[in-house]
Specification:
GO biological process, one term: mannitol metabolic process
Bound molecules: D-mannonic acid
CATH class of the largest domain: Alpha Beta
Number of helices: 21
Number of strands: 11
Strand content: 5-15%
Largest sheet: 5 strands, parallel
Helix content: 40-55%
Keywords: NAD, Oxidoreductase
GO molecular function: oxidoreductase activity, acting on the CH-OH group of donors, NAD or NADP as acceptor
Structural class: alpha/beta
CATH superfamily of the largest domain: NAD(P)-binding Rossmann-like Domain
InterPro entries: 6-PGluconate_DH-like_C_sf, 6PGD_dom2, Mannitol_DH, Mannitol_DH/Oxidoreductase, Mannitol_DH_C, Mannitol_DH_CS, Mannitol_DH_N, NAD(P)-bd_dom_sf
Protein name: Mannitol dehydrogenase
Length: about 500
């Protein structure tokens, strides 16, 4: 099994023999596959160019002791299995030094958050992990976890609660705060997190909220790498390359990108040496990625769940679906994006289509289809709103939303049943299952105000486009794909 004391067999798969074990300087909340194939790798590469104590302590917030135990049994080591059209490359990553599982390891987490040597707390907790009220952007005070953390601020379990408790410890000890770095797919992710944390702190201790507002940096980032769930094929690929067993490898595509707003008062790894782009304003990159990549990913996922394509590469291999996705980006999404002149949107679009076609990745549509209530607003509804405001057509985008609605009935066109995984699953499936016509389906789901703000839900052009698309989908996704691929 991989471990830190016997690297001989897999030395050739480490990035460099010149590795010095760093002390922990980053606590990362949400130690899923994405972080391990992205920030942890950038951080390792950066430390190889410029030494520094930027070891990572990863935290799982779901009480997943099996993940902690599997990683700790390997001393935090794991391999990244990069799968490209031309083959597989396996790299052992060493920057992860410790793994904790909340709530079991709370004392150790708070010891680290209070420790001045921890200068960054980063996050990949997915959209729902922010516990935001979708209407106001403040922490959602009706969320049971948030209510618990307000009543028991010393035993927090949510992101706003944990960050406030950690920042309070710094302030009370007269120490500088850590920088808080969101790496999730939210629009303006730094500002969104700052608002959730400060609104939570205001309820608890207004002076703490004021201190956070003045002293804590929440830079925004755009993160990009397609990272599926681990399968046995990845364990086998790692073992055959390394000669030892890795129980927790991470598969990913060769491509990766990280654009970071450069505001780190307490310092940061030299991530730019590993290819990260440090910029003054991330917004154009972030919005382009959400609206082009994540939006078309979700569209492919919902249409595929209905039509029966298992992976993104299967879906994009279907000629009409590829044509539809190309047109959706070219005709409906790209024209809404204000990007710098140097950002070539046509090249970006074509590169995305090539990344989707990677046959080695096996990115399952069911994985992307999760949490639609959290994903649709920033990925697709933002573009729909911009186009409706400008009086522009939205047919293809409406097909994407109608595909999500139809997906929420819980069965594919061939009758296969699947589960809906979403924080709003109960409400969404009740609405979808009770509808007996496309009109009812659209009306029942437009009424979910956590997803559709009143102004959007009441827009007649949106309703008409959704009813049209839902009607087509009712007679089969493949036929709807053909028809929408050939729109003028
Ligand atoms: C995907 C993303 O699962 C999803 O919803 O759209 O995880 C996507 O693979 C990444 O954002 C790519 O950077």
């Amino acid at each position: 099994m991989l471990n830190r004391s016997s690297t001989a067999s897999f030395d050739a798969h480490c990035l460099s023999p010149r590795w010095q074990e760093p002390a922990i300087g980053i606590v990362h909340l949400g130690i899923g596959n994405f972080h391990r194939a992205h920030e942890a790798l950038y951080t390792e590469e950066a430390m190889l160019v410029q030494t520094g104590d930027w070891g990572i302590c990863g935290v799982t917030l779901q009480g997943d002791v099996s993940k902690r135990d599997a990683l700790m049994a390997q001393g935090g080591l794991y391999s990244v299995v990069e799968r490209g059209p031309d083959g597989v490359r396996v790299t052992v990553v060493r920057s992860l030094r410790e793994v904790l599982a909340m709530p079991f390891d709370r004392a150790r987490l708070f010891e680290l958050l209070a420790d001045e040597r921890v200068r960054i707390v980063s996050l990949t907790v997915t959209e729902k992990g922010y516990c935001r009220d979708p209407q106001t952007g403040d922490a959602d005070f009706t969320h049971p976890g948030v209510a618990h953390d307000l009543a028991h601020p010393d035993e927090p379990g949510t992101v706003p609660g944990i960050l406030c408790a950690g920042l309070k410890a710094r302030r009370d000890a007269g120490q500088p705060p850590f920088t808080v770095l969101s790496c999730d797919n939210l629009s303006h992710n730094g500002d969104a997190l700052r608002q959730a944390v400060c609104s939570f702190a205001r309820r608890l201790d207004p002076a703490l909220a004021a201190w956070i507002e003045t002293h804590v940096a929440f830079p925004s980032t755009m993160v990009d790498r397609i990272v599926p769930a681990t399968t046995d094929a990845d364990r086998e690929a790692a073992q055959s390359a390394l000669g030892v067993r890795d129980e927790v490898p991470v598969p990913c595509e060769p491509f990766r990108q990280w654009v970071i707003e450069d505001r780190f008062p307490a310092g940061r790894p030299a991530w730019e040496t590993a290819g990260a782009q440090l910029v003054d304003d991330v917004a154009p990159f972030e919005i382009a990625k959400l609206r082009m990549l994540n939006a078309t990913h979700s569209t492919l996922a919902y249409l595929s769940m209905l039509a029966g394509f298992e992976t993104i590469s299967d879906a994009i291999g279907h000629a009409a679906l590829r044509k539809l996705i190309h047109a959706m980006m070219a005709r409906e999404i790209a024209p809404t994006l204000a990007v710098p002149a140097s950002f070539d949107l046509a090249a970006y679009r074509d590169a995305l289509l090539n990344r989707y076609a990677n046959p080695a990745l096996k990115h399952r549509c069911a994985q992307i289809a999760m949490d639609g209530s959290q994903k649709m607003p920033p990925r697709i509804l933002s573009t729909i709103t911009a186009r409706l405001d400008a009086g522009q057509p939205i047919e293809r985008l409406a097909l994407a939303v109608a595909a999500w609605f139809t997906f929420l009935r819980g069965r594919a066109d061939d009758g296969t049943r699947y589960a809906i995984s979403d924080p709003l699953a109960a409400r969404l499936t009740r609405a979808a299952e009770s509808a007996d016509t496309p009109e009812h389906l659209v009306d029942a789901l437009l009424a979910v105000s956590d997803v559709f703000p009143a102004a959007l839900a009441g827009n007649p052009a949106l309703r008409e486009a959704l009813v049209g698309a839902a009607t087509k989908l009712a007679s089969g996704a493949l036929a709807a794909i053909e028809e929408y691929a050939n729109l003028d």
